[in-house]
Structure to design on (73 residues):
Protein backbone atom coordinates (compact mmCIF):
# COMPACT_ATOMS: atom_id res chain seq x y z
CA UNK A 1 0.00 0.00 0.00
CA UNK A 2 2.89 2.38 0.73
CA UNK A 3 4.12 2.02 -2.85
CA UNK A 4 0.65 2.80 -4.20
CA UNK A 5 0.41 5.90 -2.02
CA UNK A 6 3.85 7.06 -3.18
CA UNK A 7 2.88 6.49 -6.82
CA UNK A 8 -0.29 8.53 -6.32
CA UNK A 9 1.70 11.33 -4.66
CA UNK A 10 4.12 11.25 -7.61
CA UNK A 11 1.24 11.51 -10.10
CA UNK A 12 1.81 7.97 -11.39
CA UNK A 13 -1.89 7.21 -11.42
CA UNK A 14 -1.98 4.15 -13.70
CA UNK A 15 0.88 2.54 -11.76
CA UNK A 16 -0.83 3.35 -8.47
CA UNK A 17 -4.04 1.72 -9.65
CA UNK A 18 -2.19 -1.48 -10.53
CA UNK A 19 -0.31 -1.53 -7.22
CA UNK A 20 -3.38 -0.78 -5.11
CA UNK A 21 -5.56 -3.27 -6.97
CA UNK A 22 -2.97 -5.97 -6.31
CA UNK A 23 -2.88 -4.97 -2.64
CA UNK A 24 -6.62 -5.62 -2.38
CA UNK A 25 -6.08 -9.21 -3.47
CA UNK A 26 -3.47 -9.96 -0.82
CA UNK A 27 -4.88 -11.88 2.13
CA UNK A 28 -4.50 -10.52 5.63
CA UNK A 29 -5.16 -6.84 5.02
CA UNK A 30 -7.03 -5.13 7.83
CA UNK A 31 -10.27 -3.24 7.31
CA UNK A 32 -8.36 0.00 7.91
CA UNK A 33 -5.83 -0.89 5.21
CA UNK A 34 -8.54 -1.89 2.73
CA UNK A 35 -10.40 1.35 3.44
CA UNK A 36 -7.26 3.34 2.64
CA UNK A 37 -6.67 1.32 -0.53
CA UNK A 38 -10.21 1.95 -1.77
CA UNK A 39 -9.87 5.64 -0.90
CA UNK A 40 -6.67 5.95 -2.90
CA UNK A 41 -8.15 3.99 -5.79
CA UNK A 42 -11.14 6.33 -5.84
CA UNK A 43 -8.84 9.38 -5.97
CA UNK A 44 -6.82 7.86 -8.79
CA UNK A 45 -9.92 7.06 -10.83
CA UNK A 46 -11.44 10.50 -10.15
CA UNK A 47 -8.22 12.17 -11.28
CA UNK A 48 -8.23 10.11 -14.49
CA UNK A 49 -11.95 10.91 -15.03
CA UNK A 50 -12.87 7.22 -14.94
CA UNK A 51 -16.28 7.63 -13.31
CA UNK A 52 -17.44 4.00 -13.34
CA UNK A 53 -14.25 2.73 -11.70
CA UNK A 54 -14.33 5.60 -9.18
CA UNK A 55 -17.92 4.72 -8.31
CA UNK A 56 -16.94 1.09 -7.81
CA UNK A 57 -14.05 2.04 -5.53
CA UNK A 58 -16.28 4.32 -3.45
CA UNK A 59 -18.89 1.57 -3.15
CA UNK A 60 -16.18 -0.81 -1.91
CA UNK A 61 -15.16 1.83 0.58
CA UNK A 62 -18.70 2.23 1.90
CA UNK A 63 -19.08 -1.52 2.28
CA UNK A 64 -16.18 -1.41 4.73
CA UNK A 65 -17.07 1.89 6.41
CA UNK A 66 -20.61 3.24 6.02
CA UNK A 67 -19.67 6.49 7.77
CA UNK A 68 -16.78 7.37 5.48
CA UNK A 69 -17.16 10.65 3.61
CA UNK A 70 -14.96 11.82 0.76
CA UNK A 71 -14.05 15.50 1.01
CA UNK A 72 -15.98 17.81 -1.30
CA UNK A 73 -12.79 19.09 -2.98
Amino acid sequence: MQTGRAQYDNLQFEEAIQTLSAALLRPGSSVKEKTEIYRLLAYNYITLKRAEEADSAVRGLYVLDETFALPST
About this structure: The helical segments are 2-9, 13-25, 31-47, 51-64. Residues 38 and 61 are 5 Å apart (CA to CA).
